[in-house]
Structure prediction request, 102 residues.
Amino acid sequence: MLRRFRGLLIGYGIIAVLAGWPIMSVAIAGTIASWNGCTLHEGFVNPCVVNGKDIGQTLYEMGVMGWFMLATIPLGVIAFVAWTIGWVIWYTVRQRRIDVRA
Prediction:
C-alpha cells in the first residue's frame, strides 16, 4: 500500500524541506550561537568568534533568512494542495487505464 503512495510522499517531503528551509536556517544559526555563547538577533550583527574566526555576519544572515518563511510557508501550502490535486488526477487516470486494459 505504501508503495502506491511513494511518489506522493516524496513530493510532500520535498515541499516540506523547501518550505521549511528558512526555519531550519534560523534553528541552525541559533544553535551555533547558543553553543558558543554568542548573542543572535535580527537587529544588527553581533561578534561571534569560533575557532579564532568571527562568524557573526554569517549567523546574522542565517537568522534573518527566517523572514523568508513569510513567503515559503504560504507557497508551500499552495504547492501541497497543487501536488495533492495533481497526484489524485494522475492516479485516477492511471487506474482508469488499468481498468480498461483488464
